[in-house]
# Entry
Amino acid sequence: MNEETILFYGWWQFAACLFAFIALMAIWWHIGKKQNDFGQVWLALSILCWSLSGLAEIYFTLSNIQSNFLVEGVRSILS
# Structure
């Protein structure tokens, strides 16, 4: 894949997952908090990890790091 495609995917993943995280936390704050249900919080945190994965994709693309082991390791940890 070329660099522009990877950057587009990284920014899209970051923005969409960050928005989903904020939306889920806002819904939990108004509804789930009263019911003492933390399942939605854990779901939101996992989506935040996907958002961070998008940022990592952008960082590794722009920094031209050639260590495939490091790139794949970070992707694996955040997924």
